[in-house]
Amino acid sequence: MPEPTATPEATPEPTAAGPADAAAAQAGQFLAAVGQNIAAMSTAKISMVDETESGAPFFGTMLKRMEASIETPDKLHMVVDVEAPGFGFVEIEIVQVGDQAFLKLSKDAPWAPLPPDQVPFDFAGIAKLFESLPAVIQGLSLTGQDVVQGAPAVTVQGLIKSEALSDLITTAEPGHDVTLTLWVDPTQALLRQIRLEGRIYAADAPETSRLITIEDINVPVEIELPDLTAGR
Known about the structure:
The protein is mainly beta. It is built from 2 helices and 12 strands, in the order αβββββββαβββββ. Strands 1, 2, 3, 4, 5, 6, 7, 8, 9, 10, 11 and 12 form a 12-stranded antiparallel sheet that branches.
């Protein structure tokens, strides 16, 4: 009798990418394009606000709002509105040029040297952050459309660990889940806003939400070290 012929195993049909896969792929394309634009950025003005007023820590005070001008690779001028225990609302100012940085703890306070590694934000590090994001972000997806700064924007969202933000927020503490939302100009792939929801520091409230707005990209700024002789 003839030997029985083995029945070949069925070859699985290729599965068409579903809507979620397509959205994730498109979100990844936006992320890559944004990264290229950020890497080419020379200057920008950036603001950050504690949306939930949950007491985000900043040099022993509670951050309310921050405004900064940056010039890559290593110039920064930052003004931070904080609430200080026993003092109420105070304005803190930081200037960094290269490997020199100075801090002023109120409008009338003298400038004091600040080690560059203690500058809590490295906004020039946004380029490094976006270079690393594709490898560390989880659940990347397009989540909707919005209007930011009077122009259309798409929203891209994913989950990262707090330590992944250390290129931007130099003192970020590890081990916390952060929901990252980006508002991106869909025609130019320009980053307009970033929202960071969740703890970046252990002292943060769980609901802490920081909103970062980016404006005036590649518009010239003047950032110089303070005149330490003024007022003498």
